Amino acid sequence: MSELLPSPVWVNSKELLQQMISDLAAQSRVAVDTESNSLHAFREQVCLLQFSSSTTDYLVDPLVLSDLSALAPIFANPNIEKIFHAAEYDLICLRRDFGFKFSNLFDTMQAARTIGYPAVGLDRLLGEKFGIQVDKRHQKANWAMRPLTQEQIHYARLDTHYLFDLRDILEKELIEKGRLQFALEDFSRACATDELKPKTNGESWERFAGRKDLSLRELTVLSFLCKWRDKEAEKLNRPPYKVVMDDVFIALAKNPPMQKVDLSGVGLSEKQIKLWGDALLSAIRRGEQAPLVSRRQIEPKNDAVLRRLEKLKLWRKNLGLEMMVESDIILPKPYLSMLAENPPKSLEELAELMKETPTRLEKFGPQIFKVLGGRNAN
């Protein structure tokens, strides 16, 4: 199919950026995607933005164009629909790196999930709907490298080129199943969510704090190892796991070696031992002597809340099986804890809690109220 497509426009200058924006601003809808380097850098960043208008595919190089603020009005414009596939991660990255705000979104992956597709990856959908073969190897490519290969460029442009047609097919199927409003409400909620999820590299040891097989002393040793690794990974600009793997650290914390020669027994390579053996032993010794870390205590939910939560989960799971969709399509995750912790005393109170998803309220409200222990729900 590549020979049938005109080359995408590589946008790496202010002039080309402005030409692209003029095109996008005149559209009623644009397709969008991003590529980041999370597998290849300490702090990931957006390394490529892909856009498609009705006539042209664009690849924007944010590593050359440091100021992309001129794109903000496109993303925020309620009169221009932005079509993504698997929008959540793209929105997180675009908010984090550029501070963009969003309105009027259509997510083809969420649409496919709402319909009930068992496989919703873009490669599967493009293959099924258009016979397009996508080389998934490029998903893990280092998108910060320049120049990009022709294969990478083709892969990147496929992420947006067919989204218009895919969107229209899925919208038709949503209408046929009577689920379009479910999807539109989810798209709207995605636009309204401004919470960022930063990586807390400096406290990465806390990811292990819930493990019951680690004593507080072992956790303390692990905390010093993780803090050393984070500094080293930042200096080398690579993900921490590409310095030393987590399972190696756990082995070191459980059975602290005394000498560098002992480090090979936990899976460290000769190169790692040569580069970092002394630093690892030093971090272990400091962890053995330091005051104990404390586990972050999560306030437990009371039994009544837990019972309501389990009842809601079971109800939405069973209904999801009946409708042949994942359970969060029936009731999105944000509503589970909210409803379990604040059970409505009336349908009017439930309506207030679910005001952002009126379609689910109308279709499932009485059932939800009954599951939560409410009476006179019918």
At the first level of CATH, what is the class of the largest domain?
Answer: Alpha Beta
CATH architecture name of the largest domain: 2-Layer Sandwich
Strand content: 5-15%
Beginning-to-end CA distance, first to last residue? 55 Å
CATH superfamily of the largest domain: Ribonuclease H-like superfamily/Ribonuclease H
Give the beta-strand count: 6
Q: Spans of 5+ residues with little confidence (pLDDT < 50)? A: 198-202
Largest sheet: 6 strands, mixed
- Give the strand order of the largest sheet, numbering strands 1, 2, ... along the chain: 1-4-3-2-5-6
The H-and-E topology, N to C, reads as EHEEEHEHEHHHHHHHHHHHHH
Structural class: alpha/beta
| Overall shape | flat
Q: Domain count, please report it.
A: 3
CATH topology of the largest domain: Nucleotidyltransferase, domain 5
**How helix-rich are the residues, as a percent range?**
40-55%
Structural commentary:
This protein is of the alpha/beta class and 378 residues long. The protein has 3 domains: 191 residues, Nucleotidyltransferase, domain 5; 89 residues, DNA polymerase, domain 1 (Orthogonal Bundle); 69 residues, DNA polymerase, domain 1. 50% of the residues lie in helices and 8% in strands. It contains 16 helices and 6 strands. It has a 6-stranded mixed sheet, with helices on both faces. Helix 4 packs parallel to helix 7, helix 9 runs antiparallel to helix 10 and helix 9 crosses helix 11. The longest helix has 21 residues. The N and C termini lie far apart (55 Å). About 1% of the residues have low confidence.
